[in-house]
Amino acid sequence: MACPLLSLVVFASMLALQAITYCRAALISPPNTDNNRLRDGEDPSWHVQYDPISLEMHMNTMTNISLRIEGFDKTQLEDVASIQLRSERNHVATIPDGTIKVLDFKDESYDGVFDITGVFLGSTNLFVEVILKSNGTVQSTEKLPVTVIREERVIDHIFTGSVAVLVCVLFINFGAAMDLPTVKAIMMKPIGPAIGFISQFLFMPLLSYGLGLLLFPDSFEMQLGLFFTGVSPGGGASNIWTVLLGANLNLSLAMTTISTLAAFGMMPLWIFTLGRKIFDRGNLVVPYRNLATFAVGLIIPMGVGLLSQRYTPRIARILVRVLKPMSALLILFIVVFAIVTNLYLFELFSWQIIAAGLGLPWIGYLFGFIVSKSVRLPTADALAISVETGIQNTGIAIFLLRFSLSQPAADLTTVVPVSAAIMTPVPLMILYLAIKIRENNFCRRMDVSFPDVQYVSLR
Fold this sequence. Notes:
By secondary structure, the protein is α+β, with helices and mostly antiparallel strands. It is 60% helix and 13% strand. It contains 18 helices and ten strands. The chain has helices at 2-28, 74-78, 154-177, 180-188, 191-215, 220-231, 237-244, 249-271, 276-279, 288-311, 313-321, 323-341, 351-374, 379-390, 394-404, 409-413, 415-423, 425-449; strands spanning 47-51, 55-58, 62-70, 80-87, 93-94, 99-100, 109-118, 122-132, 137-139, 144-149. The strands form two sheets. Strands 2, 4, 6, 8, 9 and 10 form a six-stranded mixed sheet that branches. Strands 1-3-7-5 form a four-stranded antiparallel sheet, with no helix packed on it. A hairpin with a 4-residue loop joins strand 8 and strand 9.
């Protein structure tokens, strides 16, 4: 009964999400210019000139434009009730006072200056709308494209640099904790890495593509954001959670290394095959240098930790002892700082965005764990594969989006990987808390039964 009921709930949820998608698209769609023309279908005989001919501005700023209207005759002006300069999307840019007075027309033309306010990321068009006394409405055929982008801040660079430093320090600790003989044994019988590779580079890209079509049927940018997240390699946070959950760290590190190196071939393969259907209108630039930097940035600190095992074993043991608390600190820092530096993106959050952020990693967790247990892998290995499958390197996805798209689309599409980054740790945190609560309850029961016996944690 549980499976049919679950299927029914999932199906109903998908229908609801689809309905929300179409309703939202209808609400934010630009005005229908055909309905804004004269009722008899005639094009306006007057014309509008804008200076500049296109406008790019930052959020929460104001600038001005010059406007010239030509071609009105006295008969037409007598039939005019009002003239307005309007924006197709007021949530992107607005005109505080867009009224054009008929009395200001001189020699059948008008010249004026208007203030434009950038409200939020996106693109819109400004146009002149004439309302006639005969209840007709005419919209200018000439429009002024306006693009609102985000101003780069110092805090963004601070966040990127600090996370890079912390991750390097953390991977030195991982190298100090790695058991090389165990890693060699894993590579001799690579069942776990093979399952991880299939889950990461076959299942996750297909899942992200399917979810994109389901949740964002009319949004090329959001489909692209979700697909780029799905084809990215495993994230370094998978190793952190593997440590916290007591799973197989050596297997996780081996899969992360393989995933990062395989990304050089697998990401372009997916992007230029299945991904071409999404962004055939754009020009894709695969950041090979960034991928190489990421791989080197992973291997070099890990190598330093491995060398410490051999030449400074005392320091290596200290690093291993601080590994867990440092892992928890890094996760807390990334989550809190990412939210603070990207608060503007929360204005874009919708049910579709949340569903995408939940669906991609959470379904990945389930798939990796179920496939691993189906081939009878130990729970520690299955958990490591599950975590490695579900956690994507959202940093790579954001980097790809920013270098593939122009602004403001580059910023707008990053809402999907940001949503995934926020939603990814939720089930892992719940599992971690459940494990700690279970351990504490077990220790309390043992203390009651055997008060004189001292126990040493096996984890």
